[in-house]
Structure formats: structure tokens, C-alpha cells
Design goal:
Order of helices and strands of chain A: EEEEEEEEEEE
Distance between the termini of chain B: 21 Å
Helix content of chain B: under 10%
Oligomer: heterodimer
Radius of gyration of chain B: 14 Å
Distance between the termini of chain A: 37 Å
Strand content of chain A: over 45%
Strand content of chain B: over 45%
Shape of chain B: globular
Radius of gyration of chain A: 13 Å
Largest sheet of chain B: 6 strands, mixed
Helix content of chain A: under 10%
Structural class of chain A: mainly beta
Number of strands of chain B: 10
Shape of chain A: globular
Number of helices of chain B: 0
Largest interface: A-B, 26 and 27 residues
Number of helices of chain A: 0
Largest sheet of chain A: 7 strands, mixed
Number of strands of chain A: 11
Order of helices and strands of chain B: EEEEEEEEEE
Structural class of chain B: mainly beta
């Protein structure tokens, strides 16, 4: 079974630029999560989807971050404009069902904002 | 790749020793707990989980112990191998009735280094 795919793996941008990350979940997984992992810390949830609907985006900085999962499969996370403190690894995780399932993580995208 | 655990607690063991990694959780309403292993440059990998109605669960070379009285979780790795070197995170999922219902909250993490 293929795992969660993410791209790009690395991205370097300057502050105030825009960036987008892509996630392809494990086939059949209805739930999808985006996490931010700052160096030296555990992952922090940004947004959670159930199929193509948002379940929880309470920790997403909505003035600069946006995410979508239009067809209930792939998802994109965008930052516009980026700040220095956005430098982190952005992890996508998916699960079979909401509340009942282990989350399976992708390899992440390492973002460096200069 | 660059380690994600530069400022985390560390545990160094010799190959073949048993390792115990501890975690204190904060939410008494959490009903599901997971241990993840994260190697450098990779996403967290599921190791073992336990529900709040249990106090012990065993897997292959790993055992998770849950003490709800003191809100403590531990991961025991038997016969630790160099391939076990990684950052280990505990995570808790909020149970019904709490503000973190269904959310996975990660602990600080511990760097495990296994010396051959």
C-alpha cells in the first residue's frame, strides 16, 4: 500500500513570498490533516478535513494560511505572504475515519523562509 | 537530514539494552494514546497505541504502559537496536466532552540514541 505523498520535499523562499504544498493521501482515507512542526517541537495541528469539508481549522493562521481539499482526495496548503517564523516542516497525515483511527504521516515539506 | 530534536530530552543506550521513554500528558479526558517514531528527514511513524480502558499493551519488542492516575505514559523497547535511534513522540487524542475532542496533541519528544 502506498503511503502519504507530499511535494515538494524542500522549499526555500524569501519572506513575503507565497508557497504551496501538496498532499496525496492513502487511497480511501477520508480524513486529512496538516501539521506544522517547528524544529525541536512535536507536530501542531493546523487544519483537519473530513472528505472535502473542514472539521477544525481553529489553529490555522487564516490571515496568511489557507488549505483546500476540493475533491476529497488531494489537498493543498498555501502560505501568502510567508514570514520568517513559518520556517518549519509541514506534515500531511491521513486516516480512514474521523476519531477512530491512527493517523499516517507523509515525509513532510521542509520550508525555509529567508 | 537535519534533526528535529535539537532541544529535546535525550536517552542514550547500548545496543541490546532495554529502553524506557516516558511521557506526561495533560488532558485527563484523553482516551487514546499513540507512540510515534520520527527519523531524521521523515514523518512520524506509528509504533503502538493504547486506549484509556487499558493499562498495558504489547507489540513486537515494544510495550506501552498507561497510568491514568498520574497521567503518565511510557514506551519500553526491548533489545534496543541502532535502527531504533530516532525521536520518539507520545500523542494523546481528546475524548468526548473536552475542547480537544478528536484532536491529536503531541508531547515534547525524546531523542533515543543507540550505540553499537
Amino acid at each position: 500500500e502506498a503511503g502519504v505523498a507530499q511535494s515538494p520535499r524542500y522549499k526555500i523562499i524569501e519572506k513575503r513570498q507565497s508557497v504551496a504544498f501538496w498532499c496525496n493521501p492513502i487511497s480511501g482515507h477520508a480524513t486529512l490533516y496538516w501539521y506544522q512542526q517547528i524544529l525541536g517541537q512535536g507536530p501542531k495541528l493546523l487544519i483537519q478535513f473530513q472528505n472535502n469539508g473542514v472539521v477544525d481549522d481553529s489553529q490555522l493562521p487564516k490571515d496568511r494560511f489557507s488549505a483546500e481539499r476540493l475533491k476529497g482526495v488531494d489537498s493543498t496548503l498555501k502560505i501568502q505572504p510567508a514570514k520568517l517564523e513559518d520556517s518549519a516542516v509541514y506534515l500531511c497525515a491521513t486516516g480512514v475515519a474521523y476519531f477512530t483511527d491512527t493517523q499516517y504521516f507523509g515525509p513532510g515539506t521542509r520550508l525555509t523562509v529567508l | 537530514g537535519e534533526s528535529v530534536g535539537l532541544h529535546l530530552p535525550t536517552l542514550s543506550v547500548q545496543e541490546g539494552d532495554n529502553s524506557i521513554i516516558n511521557c506526561a500528558y495533560s488532558n485527563s479526558a484523553s482516551d487514546y494514546f499513540i507512540w510515534y517514531k520520527q527519523e531524521s528527514g521523515k514523518g512520524p511513524q506509528f509504533i503502538i497505541d493504547i486506549r484509556s480502558n487499558m493499562d498495558k499493551r504489547q507489540g513486537q519488542r515494544v510495550t506501552v504502559l498507561l497510568n491514568k492516575t498520574v497521567k503518565h505514559l511510557s514506551l519500553q523497547i526491548a533489545a534496543t537496536q541502532p535502527g531504533d535511534s530516532a525521536v520518539y513522540f507520545c500523542a494523546e487524542k481528546g475524548g468526548a466532552g473536552g475542547t480537544s475532542y478528536g484532536k491529536l496533541t503531541f508531547g515534547q519528544g525524546t531523542i533515543l540514541t543507540v550505540h553499537p
